[in-house]
């Protein structure tokens, strides 16, 4: 698993989107056991925080100690720094395993061995994430050009799995139909720019060229944004759910 997010972990927590309440309501209404959950690749702990209101215990892991140091805290969340592909968890331990915006970084075969070992026979496995945000045609055009042309060569190869909406990721589970969700919120221009600066391809660009590529589009974004304090932001949610075969 790659670690692209230890640097500036506090900004990752501040600017990254969350998941809609409808997703957690779906879990509440469609799961049967709420003893233990594993949030794998927890990052800033945003999913672990929500799961802690549903489950007796939430185990949240990441390879970035910097992310864990900035994670949300709750009495029933147990954070640990360990790779997704090799954990110390017991067999048949979890009722739910969730990977949010992280599975594309994993070694699929090794990780799925861990899932199959640690998930209870009646347990549920979920991958969830979000695709490229949408605002309006003009602003989307600027961001799409930035995404594909300016920093396109700096994305890790694994980014393709998000572009393909997680549909091409191996999924050796009995898959179940799930609803389509989207996350909508209101952001300021400052928040949008802060979010763009957390992209892994932006960090790779900076290391290569010594300058921040977001600066190349800030003026155009400002013009397209206009004088509105905030605008509605929409993230399409990627969501797959399965049970043991």
Q: Can you give a write-up of this model?
A:
With 245 residues, the chain is of the alpha/beta class. The protein has one domain (9-243): Vaccinia Virus protein VP39 (Rossmann fold), CATH 3.40.50. It has 10 helices and 8 strands. Strands 1, 2, 3, 4, 5, 6, 7 and 8 form an 8-stranded mixed sheet that branches. Helix 1 crosses helix 8 and helix 6 (137-150) runs antiparallel to helix 10 (215-225). The radius of gyration is 18 Å and the shape is globular. The two termini are 25 Å apart.
What is the structure about, briefly put?
With 245 residues, this protein is an alpha/beta fold.
Strand and helix layout:
Layout: H1 9-15, H2 21-30, E1 36-40, H3 46-51, E2 57-62, H4 65-69, E3 77-81, E4 94-100, H5 108-118, E5 119-130, H6 137-150, H7 160-163, E6 174-176, E7 182-187, H8 189-196, H9 200-209, H10 215-225, E8 231-243
Parallel strand pairs: 1-2, 1-4, 2-3, 4-5
Antiparallel strand pairs: 5-8, 6-8, 7-8
Helix pairs in contact: 1-8, 6-10
Number of strands: 8
Instruction: Enumerate how many helices there are, as a single number.
Output: 10
Number of domains: 1
Rg measurement, Å:
18 Å
- CATH homolog superfamily: Vaccinia Virus protein VP39
Largest sheet: 8 strands, mixed
């Amino acid at each position: 698993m790659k670690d692209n997010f230890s640097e500036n972990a506090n900004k990752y927590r501040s600017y990254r989107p969350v998941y809609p309440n409808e997703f957690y309501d779906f879990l509440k209404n469609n799961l049967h056991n709420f003893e233990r959950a594993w949030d794998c690749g927890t990052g800033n702990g945003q999913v672990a925080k929500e799961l802690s209101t549903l489950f007796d215990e939430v185990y949240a892991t990441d390879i970035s100690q910097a992310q864990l140091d900035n994670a949300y805290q709750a009495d029933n969340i147990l954070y640990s720094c360990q790779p997704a592909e090799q954990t110390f968890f017991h067999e048949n331990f979890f009722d739910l395993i969730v990977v949010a915006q992280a599975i594309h970084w994993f070694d699929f075969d090794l990780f799925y061995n861990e899932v199959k070992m640690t998930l209870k026979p009646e347990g549920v496995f979920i991958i969830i994430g979000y695709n490229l945000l949408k605002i309006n045609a003009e602003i989307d055009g600027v961001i799409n050009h930035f995404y594909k042309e300016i920093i396109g060569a700096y994305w890790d190869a694994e980014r393709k799995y998000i572009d393909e909406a997680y549909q091409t990721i191996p999924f050796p589970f009995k898959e179940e139909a799930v609803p389509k969700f989207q996350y909508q919120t209101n952001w300021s221009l400052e928040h949008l720019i802060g979010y763009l600066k957390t992209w892994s391809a932006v960090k790779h660009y900076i290391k290569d060229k010594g300058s921040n590529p977001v600066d190349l589009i800030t003026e155009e974004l400002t013009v397209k944004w206009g004088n509105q304090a905030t605008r509605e932001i929409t993230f399409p949610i990627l969501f797959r759910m399965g049970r043991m075969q």
